[in-house]
Design a protein that fits this description.
- Four copies of one chain form a homotetramer.
- Chain A is an alpha/beta fold and 465 residues long.
- Chain A has two domains: 114 residues, Urease, subunit C, domain 1, CATH 2.30.40.10; 327 residues, TIM Barrel (Alpha-Beta Barrel), CATH 3.20.20.140.
- Chain A is built from 16 helices and 17 strands.
- The longest helix of chain A is centred in the C-terminal third of the chain and has 18 residues.
- The first copy, chain A, is globular and about 65 Å long.
- Chains A and B meet through helix 8 and helix 9 of A and helix 8 and helix 9 of B.
C-alpha cells in the first residue's frame, strides 16, 4: 500500500524526465521523516532536484542512463535541518573589525560547513540581513554550495552586536562610525527604539521592515541580557505578529521567562525559539497545555550532561542576580518534561563558527561539548536529547519534518516523499538503533545533487583544517 | 453662606475644648485647599491638633486663654505636601558606607528640613523600609519634629541601591557582605526576582510584603535604567494592585514609556509617579483620556526652564540610545498638555538631601535649579509649573488636597476645614498673586503646633549651615 | 661572669627605687635578646618602667613590698616587635568612607590587638600621619594601652589610598572631595608629584615634610603597582636620604626589583622593607654582598608554605605581565639564601586589621595563613622562617634587638638588659625548643606594667569577638 | 669661491656618466641645507641618483641628452625629513584587528603620503619591526615609491600596542591570541620584562635584538603612561647605549621628565626624541648646558598656538594627577628657550595616518592643526616653530641636515652637495621669506627621480581622496 501511494505520487510531477537527469538511490532502509516505520530495501528516484518516486527496490525501474547510488545496508533520512543558527557568529570588536566587509564569505563558509555535516537547510534567526539575503540567493541559484538558507535578520527589539544586548562594553572601545555601521547592519530600524512606540507607530515600522525580503520574523518578548524583563506590551506584540502574517511569513520569538513564554503564545506566534528556557521557574503546566492547544512549535536547545556540568561549575563567575546555573537546570527539567509529554520539538542550536582567537581563549570547561559550534552542534543536540529520553525517531522528526512544518516549508522539504526536494543523508549505520549514527554520514544530497563534502568549505576563513 | 457652613462644622467635633489647648489664627486671608475662592479676614480656631472652626474673624469668639496668632495681612494655606520624596537619597558606595547604621538620623534630618520649609506631610516612595517606619512612628508620636511621613519601602521589582537599577558599577568596588546588607534593606524580597515569578507566586510574595506596615505600595511598570523595557506582565501587575488594595493601601507606579503608562492605568492603580514621562513619544490622546476617565492621579516632576536648558546642554555626554534631552523635552510637552487640559496633578519631586561631597562634585550645570534638592525642590516645582501655565490656585491644590485625595488621606489632611489636622502655612504675601510667594513663610504649623523653624534640623548630618 | 655583668648594670641607674614601684619576675629562663645563651633561674627587677637588674634568682634581693611575678618553669623574652605594620589597613572606598574621622579608633584598636599578642613595639610604615602621631603620643603618655608606636606617614613618592598606587579604580566611584581629603591625609605633599622635581626642589619638599614629627622616613625606590619601574633617580634618592638623616631619623625603602634594591643600598639607606622581593630575578650575589658590607638592615615578609601554595594556585587570575606566582617564588628563594648566609633580618609583616566585610569576601585560599592579619601575622612570620631554616634564636633576634638596632632604638628597647624599658613576654614553653612556643603567652609586660590582655582591644571596631 | 668648491666636488665621483642618465635642475635659487646663504641662478646636475655638481647656471654645461628641469624663479631645498614618525599608527583593537596582516600596505601608503608632501626620508621610531624592514627594503630597492625609511622597531622597555603603555584597556576586550601576536610583533623580547633584569642579562637581550637589522635603537628612560616614573637604572641605560653603539647604530630615547632627560644625556645617547617635554618642571639650565656640551641632538614636537589652546581647553577631561595642559605649557616654554638659545633641533612629529573611523570620532578640538597627521604634520611643525621664533633657515636645517647628522646619515643625505643622494624639493616661493612656502611644492625628487606626486599613495587604505 505504501508503494502504491508512492507510485501515485509520481503522477504529480508535470515534466517528463530525461534519463540523464536521473539519480537513483537503491536498496536502502529509508526513514522518510513522516514518522512512519522505516522501510527496507527501498529505492528513491530523483530527477530535476526532486524526489520522483520512493518504493521497494523491486518495484522501481531504473532508467538506463540514470546515475545509481547503491545504498544496500545503508540508511536514508531526509536532509537535516537546524531551526536556529547564526552564520555570522560573534559580537566582539576584534571579530567584527576583522571581518567587516567579508560577512558574505563567513556566511558561505558556515553554510558549507553545515552542508558537509548533513544540514541541507538552516534557519538563521539573528544576523546582518543584507549579506544573509545575498548568500541565501546565491545558494538558491546554485552559484555556490551551501545549506539552503532561510533568514530573519534582526531579533526585533534587540540591538545590534555593539549594543547593550550583546556587547555593552563595546561602546568603550570602539569608534562611533564603526559601531553605527555594524549596529545598523543588524538593526535596520528594528532596534530598541521600537519599544518606545505606540502600537500604531510600531505597525508602520514593522511593515516597512517586512518589505526587506526576509523569510521569517523573530522578535524579543523578553530581554537578551535582562532576561526577566519584557520588551513589548501584549498590544505591541500582536502588531508584530499581525504584520508578519500579513507579509505571509512565519513569526517566532525569543523568550526567557514564564511570563514571556505565555505572552508569546497568546500573541499568536508560530514558533518559539529555546522555549524550554523559562528562567528561574519551571514552565507552568497551564502554559505547557496552552502551547499544545495553540499548536505553537517549540524549538529547544538542550545541552549534554558534560556541558551542563561544565556550565554549572563555571557559573560561580557569573553575577549574583542571574543564577545561570539555576537557569540551565530549570531548562533541563523543562526539556525532560516536554520529552515525557511527547511534545514535538525542533532541533535548534544557536550555532555559528567562532573566531578562532576567541575560541582558543575560552576556558577549557567551555570547550567541552561545544553545543553552539556549527558543524557539530546538531550532533550534540541529538546526544543531549537522547540523554533526556527522546526516542531516535522523534529526534529525526525534530530535525526534519517538524522544522519544515513549523516554518511552513513542508510542501518542499522535510520528508522523503515524491514531490519534495531531494535533500537527503545516507548513513552507514541505523540511526534508530543509536541516534548518534547520524554522524556516520556516507552521502549528503541536496537538490538531487551529491555534495562533495571533502572540498567544503571552499574557502577557509574561520575554520581550520 | 460660607461662614454658615464653617460654623456648622463646629458641631461635628465631639469633645469639649479646654481653652488652654486652643490656638487661634486671626484675621488672615485663607486659601483653604478646597479650591474655593480665598476668604478674607478669617480666623481659624485650633484645638487638640485639629481645626475646630474656620470663619470670619467677626464671627469667631476667641477663648480667653487661647493663644492668638495675629495674621492680619497674611495668607494661610494648608500645610504643603510632596507626593514623592526619598529621604535617604544616594546610591554611591561612599554615601552608603558612611551612613549605614545612621539612616534614621538622615531621615529625621530630611523630615525636619522639609518641615522648616512648609512641608507638613511627605510621601517617601523608595527607601529603606525599616528606618523609614521607625522615623515615621517617632514623628507621629511627637517624639521628634518632622514632616508627617508616609512610606512605601522598595519600588517593587527594582533592585536596592547597589543593584543594576541604581548603581550597576557598585558590584565592582563593594564587598559582598555590605552590598547584600544594603540591597536587602531596600528590597526585602521584592527585587527583580519577582519578575521571574508566575502571577500566583508573585501574589504570595506581595502579600507577605504588605504585612510589613508600609503606607502605600509602589511598583515599577517599566525599568529604571532600561526605561523602555517592561517589568511585569499585565497579569502580574493586576496581582500587585489587588494585593495592595486587599491590604487597604494605595498602589502607585513607576512608568517611563507610553506603553507602561497605559498598562499602569489598565492595571487599576491609584496614582502614577512622574506620569508625564512617556519616553521618546508623547502620551497618546487616548491614554490621556483613559487616565482621566479612570480617575488615576498623576504626579508630575517638572523642571524649570533654567534646569531644562542645563540638562539639554549636558545631555551630549549621555549614551547614544537614551536621548535624555529628547526625553525631557517630551516630558515638558506632556506637562504643558496636562495643564492646558486642566488635568489635576500632584506636586512630586523625587527630592532628598544629597551627600555634600557628591553635591560639590556635580557639574556646575547640574547645580542650577536643583529640582531634587529637598527643602527647595517643592518651591522649584511651583516655579516650573508656573512657567508651563499652571494657575496659582491649581498649584496649591496640587500641593495639598490633591495629594491628600490621591493617597486617601483627605479625611485628615489637605484642606483647612474643621475636623482636619491643623497643618498650615502662613505666608507674608499672596500666593495667588504670585505663586512664588509660597516661599515667604511666616509660620508653619503642624498638628496645631507652631514649628520652631530656626532650630531645624535638630542635628545636621548632611546639611550645612 | 654573666651574673657579674648584670649586677654591674645595677649601678648605672641613677635614682633610688621606691619599693612600691618595684616588680620582680622570678625564677624564669631568660632569653635576653642579645643572642646570648639562655640563662636559667633568673630574676628580673623592674622599677620605673625600666629593667633595673637581671640576675640569678639566688643573687637578687626582692624588695619587701615589690610585686612578684613567679615565673619558675617559664621563659622570658624581650617584648616582640614588628618592623612593618599598617594600622589603618585598607584602601577601598567602602572602608575609608565608613571610617573617615575614626582613624584614631582604628589605630588604637590595632595597637591593642598587637599588644595583647606580645607586640610591645610596632613600626607603622604607611598610613595617615596625623592620627598616627596622635595615637602614638597618647600611648606614649599612658593615656591608652597599646604597642609602643613609631610612625612614618606616607611612602614618599606614592599616592594615598585612592591614587593609582593602591586603588586606581577609586577615581571612578568616589567623589572628588572625599578622594582629595583621604589622599591628602596620607600624602601631605609627598605624593607622585615629587618625581617630577629636580633634586634641589625635592630637597625642600622633604625638608618641609620631616618637620612633621614622624619617627622615620620611607620612600619608594620602585613602584607599588608598576613594580619594575623606578620612582626616583639616584640623585633624588640621595637627597631623600640626606634629608632624613639631617632630621636625625632612620630612612628606609620600598623596593621590588634587583635594580631598585641595589639603588637603595647605594643611596645609603638604613633599612629596606621586604628586601627579599627582587621581582622576577634573584638578588645577584654582588648585591647581597653589598648589602652586608654596607650594613643595611633587611626586613623580610615571608609566607608560609600553606600560603605560598595558595597564592601560586590563585595567581592564574592575575594579569599576564606581572607573574605574581613567579615573584613570590623568587622571594622565597631569596629568603632561603639569606637564612643560609646568616644575614640578620627583621620581622616585618605589612599587617593590619582588615575591614570584616572585605575579609569575608576574600577567596577561601586567601584566608589560609593570613600573613598580614595583625595579631597573628607575627606568629606566621616565625612559622614561615622556621620553614626556611631559620633557627629559633635568630628568629627571636629578628623580632627584638635587630629591629631595635635597625631603627636606632636599641638604647631603650630590644633586649632584657638593665636600663632598657621593661618590655617583655613570659612564655609557658621554650621558644628555642620550638619557635611556635612564642604563641604560648603567659604574661605581656610593657613599660614595666603587666598588660591586661583579656580586655584588649578596649573597643572593638574592626575586630570581632 | 663657492662655485669653485662645488666644481671641485665633481672630481670626487668615480664613474663616468652616461648622458641619458642625467638630469639638470636649472636656474633655481638654492638653499642647500648647509646653512650657507642661498645661491641664486644655480643649476644642479644629477646622475645615478646622486648630485654630481651644483654651480652657477652659467658655469654648468648641460649634457646633450640630459633631462632639464627648468627652475627659474623657484627655490630648491634638500628633501625634507621627519626624525620621528610611526607609519603604523594606532593602538585600538578595532584598528589592529582590521589591519593585522596588512601592515606593509599601511606602511607603504604612509611612506607615499609623506613622499608626496616632500618628505624624502623619515625615521620610524616605534612600530612593528618585521613589516617595517620589509617595506624599508622594498623602497630602497626601488620596488615601490616612498620616503626613504629608517626604522627602530620597539621603544625598548615599553609594551606593544595592547599593553599597559598604549592601550591598557585592550586586555578587557581582546582575545589572548590576538593580543599576544600583536604585542610580540612590536616587542620582540624588548618589552617591560627587561626592566626586571640585571645589567648583565639586559646586555644579552639587547645584543640579541640588535641582530634584527634595525637602523637605530630607541629606549624609554621614563614611562609612556607613567611619565614621571623611570624605566631603567643608569647602569641599565649604559648597557643599552653601549650595545647600540657596538652594533654601529644611533641610540635615542623617550624622555618625559627633568630627571629622565638628564639621565639620558649622561647615559651617552645620540638623540633625544621630544626632548622639550620635561614634565611639570622646566628643563634646568644645567641640563640644557649639559645637552649642549655633550652634543646630544634634540628632536622637538611643538604644537601650534591653535593646537595648544585646543589642548588646554580639552585638558579638563584628563585625570587629576597628570596635568596635561600644564605639561604642554612647560614644553612650549622649553621650546622657546631652545630657540632663543640657538640650540639646533630636529623636526619630529610622531606622525602617522589615523584610522578614519577613529579620526571622525575625535572631539572637534582635536581636529585643529592635527600635528600628528602624517602628510601635514611636518608643515605644522614649521608653523609652530615659527610661532616660537625660529628663523626659516634654522627650520630648514632642522628638517634636513640636522636630522642627517643626528642619525649619522650626513654622508649620504641632508644637503644639496655633490656626492649626496639627489633628494630635493623645488618650491614655487621663497621659504626664507616665509617658511610656510615649504608647502608650495613644485617638484619632489628622490634619488634623482622626479616623484609622480599625483598618483601617491598608489593604494588608499587609510587615506581618503
Amino acid at each position: 500500500m505504501k508503494t502504491l501511494l508512492l507510485a501515485a505520487g509520481l503522477f504529480t510531477l508535470a515534466a517528463p524526465l530525461s534519463a540523464q537527469d536521473t539519480t537513483v538511490v537503491t536498496g536502502a532502509t529509508i526513514i522518510d521523516g513522516t514518522g512512519r516505520e522505516p522501510a527496507r530495501d527501498v529505492s528513491i528516484v530523483i530527477a530535476g532536484g526532486n524526489i520522483v518516486s520512493v518504493g521497494s527496490s523491486a518495484s522501481i525501474r531504473i532508467p538506463k542512463k540514470a546515475r545509481v547510488i547503491p545504498a544496500q545496508g545503508k540508511y536514508v533520512i531526509p536532509g537535516l535541518m537546524d531551526a536556529n543558527v547564526h552564520l555570522v557568529y560573534g559580537v566582539s570588536v576584534e571579530f567584527l573589525a576583522r571581518y567587516e566587509g567579508r560577512f558574505e564569505e563567513l556566511i558561505a563558509e558556515a553554510a558549507q560547513v553545515g552542508l558537509a555535516n548533513g544540514l541541507t537547510t538552516v534557519f538563521d534567526s539573528w544576523g546582518p540581513l543584507t549579506p544573509l539575503l545575498a548568500v541565501r540567493d546565491r545558494i538558491a541559484k546554485g552559484e555556490i554550495p551551501g545549506s539552503r538558507l532561510y533568514v530573519a535578520g534582526n531579533i526585533i527589539g534587540l540591538t545590534g552586536p555593539f549594543g547593550r544586548d550583546f556587547n555593552a562594553d563595546a561602546e568603550k572601545s570602539v569608534s562611533k562610525g564603526f559601531r553605527n555601521r555594524i549596529d545598523e547592519m543588524w538593526e535596520e530600524g528594528t532596534g530598541p527604539e521600537l519599544m518606545w512606540m505606540t502600537p500604531d507607530s510600531l505597525r508602520l515600522a514593522i511593515r516597512r521592515y517586512t518589505a526587506r525580503g526576509m523569510d521569517f520574523l523573530k522578535y524579543a518578548v523578553s530581554g537578551h541580557t535582562q532576561m526577566e524583563m519584557l520588551m513589548f506590551s501584549p498590544e505591541q506584540q500582536r502588531v508584530i505578529v499581525e504584520e508578519g502574517h500579513r507579509a505571509g511569513i512565519v513569526v517566532q520569538t525569543h523568550t526567557t521567562s514564564v511570563e514571556s513564554l505565555r505572552q508569546a503564545i497568546e500573541a499568536g506566534v508560530d514558533l518559539m525559539q529555546h522555549c524550554s528556557i523559562s528562567g528561574r521557574v519551571p514552565i507552568p503546566d497551564a502554559t505547557l497545555a496552552l502551547l499544545q492547544s495553540r499548536k505553537v512549535w517549540c524549538a529547544v536547545q538542550p545541552v549534554t550532561k558534560v556541558r551542563l556540568d561544565a556550565t554549572v561549575a563555571a557559573a560561580t563567575s557569573f553575577p549574583r542576580r542571574v543564577f545561570y546555573d539555576e537557569l540551565i537546570k530549570v531548562e533541563e527539567a523543562n526539556e525532560r518534561r516536554m520529552v515525557a509529554a511527547g511534545i514535538p520539538v525542533l532541533l535548534a542550536t544557536d550555532a555559528g563558527i567562532m573566531n578562532p582567537d576567541e575560541h582558543d581563549a575560552l576556558p577549557e570547561a567551555m570547550k567541552k561539548d561545544e553545543n553552539t559550534d556549527h558543524g557539530q552542534a546538531h550532533f550534540l543536540w541529538f546526544k543531549a536529547m537522547a540523554e533526556k529520553g527522546m526516542k531516535p525517531m522523534d529526534a529525526i522528526l525534530a530535525a526534519t519534518s517538524n522544522i519544515a512544518k513549523a516554518y511552513h516549508k513542508d510542501r518542499e522539504i522535510g520528508t522523503l516523499e515524491p514531490g519534495k526536494r531531494a535533500d537527503l543523508v545516507i548513513l552507514d549505520a541505523d540511526p534508530l538503533a543509536d541516534i548518534m549514527n547520524v554522524m556516520k554520514i556516507s552521502v549528503v544530497m541536496k537538490d538531487g545533487a551529491v555534495v562533495d563534502r571533502a572540498v567544503l568549505p571552499l574557502k577557509r576563513v574561520l575554520t581550520r583544517k
